[in-house]
Design a protein that fits this description.
This protein is α/β, with parallel strands linked by helices and about 325 residues long. Helices cover about 30% and strands about 25% of the residues. Strand 4 and strand 5 (about 80-85) form a beta hairpin.
Length: about 325
């Protein structure tokens, strides 16, 4: 897909990102040429099944991929004109947590069980804002109050909080230094519906207040509809459809995207069963040639065995499908 060529105009962009792991002597092709852009203060949703490569994209951006398993990382990650993948680790540490922050998927494992929640928030504030211990604790307490946790609970430990409260603490840690870019990796997956709505409302409110841009990783299209301006549908480490929220919800075009929407319940229709996407995602160590979705696609032909580029089917709405490309 075409993207801006002037680096000074780009707030954040991922270009041809690739990530490969090794496991048991095999190469795992986790991310395969992902590209997208993000404007200041806006939100993009990365959507797809478990194992599609969404979290690997996020960890590659943050430069926190596991050293022991990562074979290669390629492409570019541009943040305010800087190429993050080429930065020395010391410079990346300055950005990580201050300018770019991440809400991890599971608050149970993201929090340190032997430190109070206020100390865990204050640590990042102390490092990045150069405050003393007293002032950093004071700022951390204020941040906890911002996410709805009162001061009298600040010195408690993670095991004393419910799942929803832990998630609020993780969000407080991520937002403590007012980052310009927030990566939220399925921030509401472990929460019940009521708490999920509260957390999403809180994140949107804080985002609007701070002007933070966000990459939201999820498999919940309802969350995407509520939070995102643009959407990238990820399958087998590639973006197969990319456009505005309206493009994706009103004019879904890739067979996989159509399948995702078909698997959602529609209260306006009287049906006995949902229509799931048949089959399973491909083995990332042995991806099919050409379109990775072809083995599951009802419209696949022999032509789908060749490399398929993204096609712009309407302004800024891109689809990776040779059948749609032929129709254009």
């Amino acid at each position: 897909m075409e993207q801006s060529t002037n680096r000074d105009e780009i707030f954040f962009a991922v270009k041809d990102l690739t990530v490969e792991y090794t496991s048991g002597g095999e190469v795992i092709h986790a991310v395969n040429g992902v590209s997208f852009e993000l404007e200041k203060g806006s939100t993009i949703g990365l959507v797809g099944e478990t194992g599609a490569g969404k979290t690997s994209i996020a960890k590659a951006i943050m430069r926190i991929l596991p050293d022991h398993a990562t074979k290669a990382v390629g492409g570019q990650v541009l943040f305010e004109g800087e190429e993050l993948l080429a930065l020395p680790e010391q410079e990346m540490r300055v950005l990580r947590g201050k300018s770019i922050s991440m809400i991890f998927q599971d608050p149970m494992t993201a929090l340190n069980p032997v430190k109070t929640v206020v100390d865990q928030i204050a640590e990042g504030i102390r490092l990045h804002q150069k405050l003393n211990k007293h002032d950093s604790i004071k700022a951390a307490v204020k941040m906890l109050e911002t996410v709805g946790i009162s001061e009298d609970r600040a010195h408690e430990y993670p095991h004393q909080f419910s799942g929803g409260m832990k998630q609020r603490v993780v969000i407080a840690i991520a937002l403590a230094c007012n980052p310009k870019l927030l990566i939220a990796d399925e921030p509401t997956t472990a929460l019940d519906v009521t708490i999920q709505a509260q957390v999403l409302d809180m994140m949107k409110s804080l985002q609007n207040e701070m002007g933070t841009a966000m990459i939201l990783i999820t498999h919940d299209l309802g969350v995407v509809a509520d939070v995102c301006e643009s959407v990238a549908v990820v399958y087998a480490g590639q973006i197969v459809e990319y456009g505005s929220k309206e493009d994706l919800f009103d004019h879904a075009s890739h067979p996989y995207t159509i399948g995702l929407f078909g698997a959602l319940p529609d209260l306006s229709k009287d049906v006995r069963r949902l229509s799931p996407v048949e089959g399973l995602p491909p083995d990332p160590s042995n991806l099919p040639t050409g379109c990775a979705f072809a083995p599951r696609c009802p419209h696949a032909t022999e032509e789908c065995g060749q490399a398929i580029a993204m096609t712009e089917i309407s302004p800024k709405h891109y689809v990776r499908c040779i059948q749609i490309g032929k129709e254009k």
